[in-house]
Amino acid sequence: MTDFKPNNFYCLYYNYNMNRTQVILIILLVFIILFVLLIICYKYHAITKKTRDDSLHKNKNDPTQPFLGLVPNMMKESADELGLKYTTFNNRIIISDDNNSIEFRSYVNNINSDASIKLSSDKYLCSIKLLEHNIPVPQPVLFNGITESDISSIDNRLNIKFPLVVKPVYGTGGRNVFVGIQSFERMKRILNSLRNKGLLNILIEEHIYGKDYRILCYKNTVIDIVERIPPHVIGDGVSTIEELISIKNKSNSNLNLHSIKINFEYLNAMNIIITSIPISQQRVVVNPVSNYHNGGFPTRIPLTNVHPDNLQMFSSINSILGLNLSGIDFLIPDISKSYKVIKGAVNEVNKYPNFDIHYNADNKQSTEISTKFLRTYFNL
Predict the structure, then answer these.
(1) Contact between 91 and 68 (Cβ < 8 Å)
(2) How far is Cα 270 from Cα 164, in angstroms, rounded to an integer?
């Protein structure tokens, strides 16, 4: 005879002397309670999300009005200032006059053609096109579909000297960009890391020393230039690097600036430990990629402080690439000197330049540049 093994239902029925109906009712009650809790959690999530979104999208001048997002709202304020007509919907703004219109959805806009967007999205082809027109760029080497064999033999395949930069052919926001590489050992670690992420189309360039500038251009007009100071902290002789970053990120949050993104690979390569305590006034760079979204601080450069050769070169790039609006990343030790005299290079050309870096330059939260752009676009 087979031994009888009571199930949970039988145990409940037997131990507490309940009939079958009572047990079923208890089980149903448990399911109902779980269902109600699920509904409460869902509604709580929806409410908190709406509250969070409302908080993020309030108009800084009128808390009762919905906020479109930083760039569309900048354009709205500038359109109001200039008396331009506009329509807003679904986080978008369309600004128009009797002859032209322009649309912004976040930093994405409809100003550039599909062909120019495709060209400028490919960092290698973009560099080659600029080289053809004698625009200085870092010497590039392309690896399409990089393999383990490519990485293991990289020592013999590069014809450019250290220090070097490695980055994906396609990418934005300074992500997966590594600079100042001084050895094949570090190079191989980086390439294996990128390959493991599925990033197989890789560009290796010479490292250009200098300050990092973002130039906003519309057609052949230079609208604005900011220097992007790399994410860093200043020692106080007491706090660790990690604590200083936390303090600065709280300050950045209060100022509506991006938090510092630590580049641990760079810190390891530089033998920098985030638990160490820098001496007073010691400047420690924690991410060498000066991109604004990494926590770099933008400082406006008056156009009168820029050498005419550099301005002329910037104003020619859009026509070379077929762009109307661009954000040019330029490296040079001193932008007041001609690139023909001291070494400088166009690092990248962005087809969707984000106006927020110009809005937050010098922490002034000013629509001066978006207004200047709309004046130029609508020929006001």
Answers:
(1) yes
(2) 15
From residue 378, give the alpha-carbon distance in Å to each of 76, 80, 84: 14, 14, 9
**pLDDT (tens digit per residue) in 163-178:** 999 999 998 877 889 9
C-alpha closest to that of 126 among 345, 288, 308 = 345
Closest CA to 344 of 317, 302, 301, 313: 313
Q: What is the pLDDT of residues 205-238, one digit of tens each?
A: 999 999 999 999 999 999 999 999 999 999 999 9
> Which residues make Cβ contacts (< 8 Å) with residue 136, sequence separation at least 6?
339, 343, 344, 345, 346
Q: What are phi and psi of 72, to 5 degrees?
A: -60, -35
257 touches 295 (CB < 8 A) = yes
Q: How many Cβ atoms sit within 10 Å of the Cβ of residue 207?
A: 19
pLDDT of res. 178:
92
Query: What number of CA atoms fall less than 13 Å from residue 362's CA on the CB side?
Result: 10
3-state secondary structure of 345: strand
**pTM for the structure as a whole:** 0.79
Three-state DSSP class for residue 98 = coil
User: Within its chain, how far is the Cα of 201 from the centroid?
Assistant: 20
Distance in angstroms (rounded) separating the CA atoms of residues 244 and 318: 40
Give the CA radius of gyration of the chain.
28
Distance separating alpha carbons of residues 314 and 221, to the nearest angstrom: 9
3-state helix, strand, coil in the chain (%, to 5): 40, 20, 40
- The total of other beta-carbon atoms located within 10 Å of residue 115's CB is 11
Where does the chain have alpha helices with state H?
8-15, 20-56, 70-82, 114-121, 123-132, 148-152, 154-157, 184-196, 241-254, 264-269, 308-321, 356-359, 368-377
pLDDT means per 10 residues in the chain (380 residues)?
Answer: 47 54 77 79 51 39 55 94 92 92 90 95 96 95 89 87 92 85 92 91 93 97 96 95 93 80 91 94 92 88 98 98 97 97 96 92 93 96
β-partners of residue 202 are: 143, 168
Residues 6 or more apart whose CB falls under 8 angstroms from that of 254 comprise none
Q: In 3-state terms, what secondary structure has residue 226?
A: strand
Q: What is the pLDDT at residue 54?
A: 42
- The pLDDT score that the predictor gives to residue 41 is 67
